[in-house]
Amino acid sequence: MARLIAVVLITVVIVVFAMANMHHIELSLVVGKPAQVRLIFLLGSAYLAGMVTSVLWGMARKLQRSRELRSLQLKSSDRLEELEE
After folding, report:
1. How many angstroms separate the CA atoms of 39 and 13, rounded?
2. What is the rounded distance in angstroms from the CA atom of residue 59 to the CA atom of residue 65?
3. Could you state, in order of their start, the residue ranges of all structural domains in the chain?
4. What is the mean pLDDT of each run of 10 residues along the chain (85 residues)?
5. CA quadruple 4, 9, 10, 16: dihedral positive or negative?
C-alpha cells in the first residue's frame, strides 16, 4: 500500500512538472535554423540521453571487471597447479 502511494505521489509530481514546462523554446543547433521545441521534451531527451550513457558505462565497467576476475582466476589456478607439482 505504501508503495502504491509513493508511485501515485511521484506520478503527480512528474505530471505537475511536465505541465509547468510545456511552453515552447527556441533550440539553436550548430547548423540550420533554430527549432521550436517544448521544454519538457528537451528535458526528457536530456534525461534519457544521460540514462542511456549511464547504463552503457555501467555495462562496460561490469564487462571489464568480469574479464579482470576471469584473468585472476586463471592466474590463481595456474599457481595452484605449480604448487601441486
Report:
1. 17
2. 10
3. 2-84
4. 93 92 90 90 93 96 94 81 71
5. positive
